[in-house]
Amino acid sequence: MWRKRSLLRLAMLSTFALVAVYYTTSQLHTIKKYRNRRKVGSVPPWAPVILVNELQYVGTAPEDDEDVFARHAFNLRSSNELPSDRSLPDTRHARCRDVEYGAAPLQTTSVVVAFHNEDRSALLRTVVSVLNRTPPDLIEEVILVDDRSDDEQDGSLLSSLPKVRVVRNQAREGLIRSRILGALEARGDFLMFLDSHCEVNVGWLEPLLDRVTQNALTVVSPVIDVIDMDTFQYRASSPQLKGGFDWSLYFKWLPLSHEERTRRGSPMEPFLSPAIAGGLFLISRDWFQRLGMFDSGLRIWGAENLEISLKSWLCGGNVEVVPCSRVGHVFRKTHPYTFPGGNADTYLRNTKRVAEVWLGDHKRFFYEAQPNARALDAGSLQEQLEVKSQLDCRPFQWYLENVFPELKLPNEENSAFGQLKQGSQCLQSEVESSGVKLAECNESELSQHSWAFNVHTASIQHGKLCLSVRNKLNLVLETCTQSYQQEWSRHGRAVVLLSSGQCLESGIRSELRLSECRRGAMSQQWDFTVELQAQDDHPVNIT
Ligand code: UD2
Ligand code: MN
After folding, report:
1. Which of 1, 244, 257, 324 has the most CB within a 10 Å radius?
2. Looking at the chain, which residues constitute the CATH 2.80.10.50 domain(s)?
3. What torsion, rounded to 10 degrees, do the Cα atoms 425, 428, 430, 431 define?
4. Residue 351 CB–ligand 1 contact under 6 Å
5. Ligand 1: distance of its center to the CA of 161 in Å?
6. Can you tell me which atom of ligand 1 is nearest the CA of 118?
7. Tell me: the pLDDT tens digits for 473-518?
8. How far is the CA of 117 from the centre of ligand 1 (A)?
9. Secondary structure letter of residue 71 according to DSSP
10. Cα angle value 472/450/244 (rounded, 5°)
11. How many whole angstroms from 279 Cα to the centroid of ligand 1?
12. C-beta of 178 in contact with ligand 1 (< 6 A)
């Protein structure tokens, strides 16, 4: 009996000893691996941080009858119920875990998070995820820029966390100027911008650093995973999409072309992108400063992602997405905060600044897509234009040809488009009567825009409709049929109905009609805002 028991004890002891030795050596091994080669899939060997009084900081749960979306446009209860250090599904491609990222660089990163009235639990999770999922020697600091939140303690209470520094704006500046302030405070070699409701995933920083250490003029973005705004469930996003925009300068996702996919070889490899989706990116502090940081004339929210992308591409750098780096973000449907002075024109004004500085002659396509932008006062662009000339940046045409060939000129079959004018009068559609008339030109009158001369079908189009002649004399807008009532040609500034050889003319009461073409008649001369082809100036059939 005694023997049996002591044998059992011995067996247990030796198993324990074996397990302990195995555990210690494997831990040492892991640490060694980190020191030498920085593999980024294992359990972190550094101590996790916690905010001692987390529950107190986050505060009480919302009342049962509270609208949980009202304050932050995401479900406050779901966010509050999660611990700051929850675990996340590893959404990277399985092989990302085996990539080795070279020796530990001596350079460090400053993480910059601007926030305005952020939910405390979301803000805390952002910071804790960075501290717990990043090797400490890579992080210089986490700079929280409090953009004048109502409660100063939202930020100040977090300054007890390791590496966290909090700066607070004297007045509400908007996210762009807040990030500039954060960048000016930063001491690290690299800057990483994050929103205040993010969670970085395992091994997120190393693959980004790997790219900027290879090319210091690169702007790199992680793949932005989705944190569900209702359930806070963490979901993978497609790692095969690049960022672009349309002529309104609205951001959009684009699939990688077949050629780009084949050239890439591996789904883990970084790929070039015309633009970054938003504000989550890493850049060398030096390159950011040489690029003039963000345009400080951009207000509150929007367009800075396009600005930094265009600047980086046109002034000697590039933009990349790195699929082995994953950061989650709570995407929401509305802005939960106010825009001082109203938000109606903020985005339009911000995009106008970007178009004016970086689009060159192509800005006319922006104005065509956003006619209301013309009348806005965008403020001085002096500083941005200086950066552009100092860095000897390339013209937008180069970007269109080499970086973003998917951004087509608006319908290549159109030889002219915009407003169709005669002096200060513009052709205007009348929805109810499906007629057309002339009226004083007005930039913000949408029914005067979107006219185009389509050389392929010889039609004058207004959106999806075509200028057509009914009963040989009435001018109307009808569905395009390519019939002879809709076929026009342009001779110099005259617009001629092909079937009859008559000219489009304005009458005394600004009505439109057809009449015999007369050389030099002012009432028969028409111009489009944008002419893409020189006009044939040999009038036929004109008396
Ligand atoms: C997207 C980007 C964001 C930025 C923005 C366009 C992602 C995931 N997010 O924003 O980074 O590029 O588009 O400008 O790509 N904030 C302030 N002061 C303000 C307003 C906002 O500090 O006056 C903070 C806010 O608390 C948040 C960050 O700025 O941390 C971005 O704002 P958002 O989350 O409302 O914008 P989102 O996600 O639509
Ligand atoms: Mn956001």
Report:
1. 324
2. 414-531
3. -160
4. no
5. 23
6. 26
7. 899 999 999 999 999 999 989 999 999 999 999 998 888 999 999 9
8. 12
9. T
10. 150
11. 7
12. yes
